[in-house]
Amino acid sequence: MKLTKLEKYWILYDVGNSAFTMLIATIIPIYFNALAGGAGISEVDYLAYWGYAASVSTVIVAVIGPVFGTIADTQNFKKPLFTISMMVGVIGCAALSFPTSWVVFLAVFVIAKVGYSSSLVFYDSMLVDVTEPERLDAVSSNGFAWGYIGSCIPFVLSLVFVLMNEKLGISMGTAMTIAFFLNAGWWLFVSLPLLKNYRQKYYIDLPEHPVRSSFSRLLSTLKDIRGQKHIFMYLLAFFCFIDGVYTIIEMATAYGSALGLDSQGLLLALLVTQIVAFPCALIFSRLSRKYPTDTLIKVCILAYTGIAVFAIQLDKQWEFWLLAVLAGMFQGAIQALSRSYFARIIPPEKSGEYFGIYDICGKGASFVGTTLVGLVAQLTGRANAGVSMLTVMFVLGFLLFGRAARMNRERG
After folding, report:
1. Count of structural domains within the chain
2. CA distance 289 to 272
3. CA distance linking residue 374 with residue 48, whole number of Å
């Protein structure tokens, strides 16, 4: 399938923000571990504090996402709100290089992640503006696929400085500063084509009081959405299964570090995840032309259930490598197909509003997952025990999604 210029520009933002996602999954937790270790924080507490910080950022976005998403549906509002949130993320990413205290570092991280996550509310809702309904699965999958492989460019460059800092004659602090600024610059640069060319196709006409009107529309939709059982059931299912996916993405390196696995091995294993995710996301994009999207999502949920079960007993480096490959096979597919499936069942002129609610479920789920992993790890004193909670969410998500899929099929 040949992509249009606007579809390519939209995909480029996935390439940009995925660089920050890669940092969150790899270098940032290891750097935080070093800061926390220097302050005498234990490995179990380090994992818990990292989980709590991720949870705080997701709660903030879950609260503000639907409100700003609804405002973004107003004519000519989506691009400015997207730009502001993206710049908060970019500046926050660069600012991570300054703190020397683990507490301040976590505070800056929360701000940067709020900007990043908020930008995705507007970015996801742009999907209906940049393509046609029959191309949603393919374009969404291409976004994740190219995001995964594109993020490897600044990541590999960052690894050169971080892993070879002594040979290059620079301190680890300087190497981390270069890595943070490099990724922030990459994120900003590849976002410029979308900022220049995006036009809001579906919107609500500008009311006399846009902010007040947006609150009214959001409250009305929240009341009505329970009556739209096909959407309500899908959001419940999404909340459950995406919980495990986001938690694994955000805490994989922290989990491996807490188990005492080699840091360099963890970084390289997660690089493999990105490389594997690229062709697999494109393969699922092709499969979506032959098989129903809901069937492919079910396959991904079942695969992640097996991954979570395998992770419970993980204690060796090669097992982490296998986990990284397995996660890469289904990571992009489940995210891309979930996004396009939702875009297909909602009113396009209310995409910002609905994707704000979608983000509550996605980021709210991540809050539950990271918090559960942190709490159970601290209560039991075993990092493995925390991961076991994810299998329950995957099973519940599979059952709820099966019901949601039946409802949507019955609607035609």
Report:
1. 1
2. 27
3. 4
Count Cβ atoms within 10 A of the Cβ of residue 222 and give its class: 0-12 exposed, 13-18 middle, 19 or more buried. middle
Query: Any idea what the CATH number is for the domain that residue 350 is in?
Result: 1.20.1250.20
Give the global pTM: 0.79
**How far apart are alpha carbons 278 and 2 in whole angstroms?**
17
Q: What is the pLDDT along the chain (412 residues), one digit of tens a residue?
A: 789 999 999 999 999 999 998 888 778 877 887 888 787 887 777 777 887 887 788 778 877 877 888 888 888 889 999 999 999 999 999 999 998 888 999 999 999 999 998 999 899 999 999 999 889 999 999 998 999 888 889 988 998 898 888 888 998 889 989 999 999 999 999 999 999 999 999 888 766 666 676 667 777 777 777 778 888 899 989 988 988 887 776 666 666 666 666 767 777 777 788 888 889 989 998 998 899 999 999 999 999 999 888 877 777 777 878 888 888 899 889 989 999 999 999 888 888 878 878 877 776 666 677 677 777 777 777 666 666 778 888 999 999 999 999 998 888 6
Give the domain extent around 334.
Answer: 5-411
Using an 8 Å Cβ cutoff, are 276 and 321 in contact?
no
Question: What number of residues does the chain have?
Answer: 412
